[in-house]
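Lab notebook page, bench 4
Experiment: in silico fold of construct C2
Operator: M.H.
Input chain length: 70 residues
Purpose: comparison with the prior construct
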Amino acid sequence: MLKKYGAGDQCYVISFNDEIDGRYLKLEEAIEKAVGSGFPSLISCIPDKLAYVEGEQIDGPPERYIIYKQ
């Protein structure tokens, strides 16, 4: 869905997961390591326009959002 909104191959990640925090990664790798990890993460695909946010997993699946600004 991020690709549909114009995401490229690279993204920047802010996360409580030290393995991916503060790094530029391929989008697929960032999603793979962030989704379901239990750590809150923000994946910036297009600065000030497109991002994926996953909340902390406490009980059940975490909240997940795509932030898109036209």
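Observations: Strands lie at 10-15, 23-26, 41-46, 50-54, 64-68. DSSP finds one helix and five strands in the chain.
Next step: discuss at group meeting.
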